[in-house]
Write a structure and sequence with these properties.
The chain folds into two domains: 299 residues, Alpha/Beta hydrolase fold, catalytic domain (Rossmann fold), CATH 3.40.50; 78 residues, no CATH class. Helix content is 31%, strand content 15%. The N terminus is likely disordered. It has a ten-stranded mixed sheet, with helices on both faces. Strand 6 and strand 7 form a beta hairpin. By secondary structure, the chain is an alpha/beta fold. Helix 2 packs across helix 15, helix 5 runs parallel beside helix 15 and helix 12 packs across helix 13. 44% of the residues are buried. It has 15 helices and 14 strands. One of its GO terms (molecular function) is alcohol O-acetyltransferase activity. It is an enzyme of class 2 (transferase).
């Protein structure tokens, strides 16, 4: 190994997928020397072509703990501007509101009226009309006026990305803006679905959200499809948002309105990931304690509303220290689970992979202490043609910091989404090359006798039934 190899060590990049990856039809391409002009490409080959062969990260952040810690120390000032709208939940089972931030062109909302509501901006592009019962939105974020929001619907064909953030984050998170900013500059439309209570959004019912909380993203996608009927829609989720997005795509199955999805640092098997955190001092005293504290702060921010739930014991929640304790005292009882581990098993997205029917690209670091390596779906990825997982030997949780400050994971994500939007015929049906079924899963014929039940594995059959709203915004 040469001197420069020591200065810029190269992490291992690996891919995990079925031998019969789904086949995508390309759009007709102009003759261009050196460009693959074949009419079809497999999802696996598309993901590989979108991913840099080298994963050269900052040599001073030489393990997952340092990479993850640097996320807290580094504050990337990426000036993404948002306009926010509050939606009322469309299902009586999940009452309350949630807030969605739409990426817009830069504006000046520094001028405010006497009651704190922003007035006409200098460039005349946007106004801000903050609801009187709202908490103050995040920086560079203000509310749409009624007139602005009613003028949004369009027949344009711009690709649009729906984003789900991590555990207690929001549209302000740097890891998220590292993806949103370049895509928006390249002509994409983007919106971020803030989980209830996150990003200074207002909680209007006695529930927050959980790892199976797919109803708000479902309502958002339906609203977008209705108001922007010609836009191809894509999704991306980070950490807990990746788990939720995978569950959503699995629940939608062949009816999913997204053309493709990306998930980054997905914890996949929540029980395994939780136990892995509890097993080590760093996992419990650093990561789990930090995430537990974040959720407790979120709880306290909305405690006056959350305490209205008959199964919430405020003092027991306040006495928790670690994330699994918080889930034991709040999430499990509110949603009807007997224990936090029952909740984790039921809300995990690892089996949802088998119900996914759109291209899904997962990116994971094997030294991620939060989304544990032992929880990754290595085997599951080989059993579905619709998903590909890229793993790196190094990168931490939503980090992948390179020397100089960039984040490696933004490259495969942005490349993949752009390739899907510009190179793939999204109206063409996906082609799945059927594999020969294993003999033990082959249904018995009338002349055969096979002991045991007929195979009937339903990946989205949950232990706790949560109705999926079928209405539209």
């Amino acid at each position: 190994m040469g001197v420069f190899s020591w200065l810029l060590p190269n992490g291992r990049v690996s891919f995990h997928h079925s031998g019969k990856s789904v086949i995508l039809k390309r759009k007709p391409q102009k003759a261009n020397p050196g460009v693959d002009e074949s009419k079809y490409i497999s999802l696996a080959d598309l993901c590989k072509s979108a991913t840099p062969a080298d994963c050269q990260l900052n040599p001073f952040l030489f393990n997952g703990h340092l990479q993850t810690a640097w996320t807290l120390m580094r504050t990337d000032d990426i000036p993404v501007y948002y306009k926010r709208w509050r939606f009322e939940g469309d299902s009586p089972d999940y009452r309350g509101s949630f807030e969605v931030d739409f990426v817009v062109e830069p504006y000046n909302n520094s001028k405010t009226s006497s009651n704190g509501t922003a007035i006409q901006s200098d460039n005349g592009t946007f106004e801000s009309s903050t609801p009187p019962d709202s908490t103050h939105p995040s920086p560079r974020t203000s509310f749409f006026t009624e007139e602005e929001f009613s003028a949004l619907p369009s027949d344009d064909k711009k690709p649009m990305l729906v984003v789900l953030h991590g555990l207690s984050g929001g549209s302000h998170e740097p890891y998220l803006r590292n993806i949103v900013d370049p895509l928006h500059k390249q002509g994409w439309e983007v919106c971020v679905v803030n989980f209830r209570g996150c990003a200074n959004s207002k909680v209007t019912s006695s529930i927050l959200y959980n790892a199976r909380a797919t109803w708000d993203v479902r309502q958002t996608v339906r609203w977008i499809r209705k108001n922007f009927p010609s836009r191809p829609l894509f999704g991306i989720g980070f950490s807990l948002g990746a788990n939720i997005l995978t569950n959503y795509v699995g629940e939608e199955g062949e009816d999913c309105q997204l053309k493709a999805a990306v998930v980054c640092s997905n914890p996949w098997n929540l029980e395994v990931s939780s136990l892995a955190l509890q097993r080590t001092w760093v996992g419990s005293q650093v990561y789990s304690r930090t995430m537990g504290s974040s959720m407790k702060r979120l709880f306290e921010q909305h405690v006056d509303k959350l305490r209205e739930h008959p199964r919430v014991d405020v003092e027991r929640v306040r006495k928790t220290t670690y994330l699994h304790e918080f889930d034991r005292e709040l999430q499990a009882p509110v949603w009807g689970y007997p224990t936090e581990t029952a909740y984790y098993r039921d809300a995990s997205s690892i089996d949802s992979l088998f119900a996914v029917k759109i291209p899904l690209f997962a990116i994971q670091a094997e030294d991620d202490a939060i989304s544990s390596k032992e929880a990754l779906p290595y085997l599951e990825m080989t059993k579905t043609p619709y998903a590909v997982m890229c793993t790196t030997s190094w990168g931490g949780h939503l980090s992948w910091f390179e020397y100089g400050g960039g984040r490696w994971f933004t490259k495969p994500v942005v490349n993949f989404l752009n390739k899907m939007a510009s190179e793939i015929d999204l109206d063409a049906p996906l082609t799945v090359v059927e594999e020969e079924p294993e003999s033990k899963l082959t249904p018995a014929t009338s002349s055969e006798r096979v002991d045991g039940p007929h195979p009937d594995f339903k990946p989205m059959r949950r232990k706790l039934h949560m109705p999926i709203p079928d209405g539209e915004e």
